[in-house]
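2024-03-11 09:14:02 INFO queue: dequeued item NADP-dependent oxidoreductase domain-containing protein, len=506
2024-03-11 09:14:02 INFO validating residues
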Amino acid sequence: MAVSRNGSSNTAHVNMMTDSVIANLPPDGLRVIIRSLLASHPDITASFEDATRQYLAQAQTKTSKSQLAALDVGALEKTQRIARCMLGSGQAFDGVSILERLVIRGIQIALDSPETEKQRVNSLLASLDGDLVQAMTAVTKKLAVSSGARALSPGEHDIIQALFESLAQCQRMLKDTGIDFPYGRGMLTTANILGVDSPESPKGRLNKIPSEISRPLPAKETFQLGDRILPRIFSGLWQMSSPAWGSAQISKIIDGFSTHVQNGFTAFDMADHYGDAEVLYWDNPQYIDALQYLAEDKRVARIGLCNFDTEHLEHVVESGVKIFTNQVQVGTSAITDVAGPDKMQFSLVDSRPTFKMADACSRHDIKLLTYGTLCGGFIADKWLNEPEPDVYDTNITPSQRKYYGMICSWGGWDLFQELLSVLRTVATKHGVNISNIATRWVLDFPYVGAVIIGARIGMSEHTSDNATTLGWSLDDNDRGLIEEVLDRSNRAEMFETMGDCGNEYR
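2024-03-11 09:14:37 INFO prediction written
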């Protein structure tokens, strides 16, 4: 327990027994406990972030005194983690200042590293590029005000300008070396913050695209959304919002997008930052007024919602606003669309949409865009007959940490293994894989427009696998085998305890 003398937090300390726990728990254990405390007691988040900033102030001082120019790969990675913590705790510009020095040192290491270190160095540079994108997102959040966005102060501008100039220096250092510039995404987002052109701008990249490009394959399955025909599988880009899922160089990302498009996957779910994508919540009493305002804007062709429950979806419909989907995305330029179908979590493990939302969507001709269908990749052949995962292992993604909790609530790992076994039986019958069956199960509901499948663009490709999901349906026997397992799960209890769709985000 924490003990305070005279009620003063300044003199509070942790007693010896508690300190012994802290001193001896492995780092992963501490992470588990901290995440649990913050989830259970969100009121302590501000104190946690404040304590983090105090610690980082000391760490930053030590870093500034060290010779960054002499850092090896390991030391650079350690300093990179400090910068990430700064970005996450509200110290955006301090984090940018450290990244500005790291990007140059990263290029120096790339130029001098032996062949045996190339793969590690390339991964490091790609992750730094992802950090730069996240840093500019953090800066954007710092600039947000009630009326929109304020301008950079002179000091803030100097920090971003210094980063931009360092990135330009990195480009010059790599000229004629045969090494691709690894900070393309970071260069572009930094230039956008400054309002200047970048050699890595979309216009510049278009000049590198061959003049003859084969026409993309048509989508195997489509659905109607107003006057538009859309494919039934969207590629989700949540993973690009953070290097926590891994990072790839921009050349590989462009190649990855090309692969998706050429295979008929031409729809992508994206947002500037997913934490800010869902800005119109129903706990704001003006949400209907805001939607009506959007509906009256002639630039808005379609309105969708994101993670609305059935009750509030019905309220919107009753207000006279035509809803096509459940996702809201408003661009910063001329608006032609505001998203599409009702976007929400829907899978074999989380089937809450079948309880109430299904009827509302059917009555009002609203389509669902579903995500989480593969539970972050857990519903896959690679997890069949595997032991329960250590969700804080470095190979486990943030998505898997989230969906592992859903699996535990649904019925636990043993029952989940039974589900995977049944899915494997059905998959063998159809000549596909487990993920295909799980996706097909969701797509076969008539009120589902499309499934959003997360794509780690440039790192792993599943376009061929995803394509085999389309063009067929499960039969009654398939659904019966799957239903036998689902009947033994806690799906009804999950609806009662978690509430309707989207309640976990409120």
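2024-03-11 09:14:37 INFO annotate: Confidence is low (pLDDT under 50) at residues 1-11, 201-208, 273-279, 327-341.
2024-03-11 09:14:38 INFO item closed
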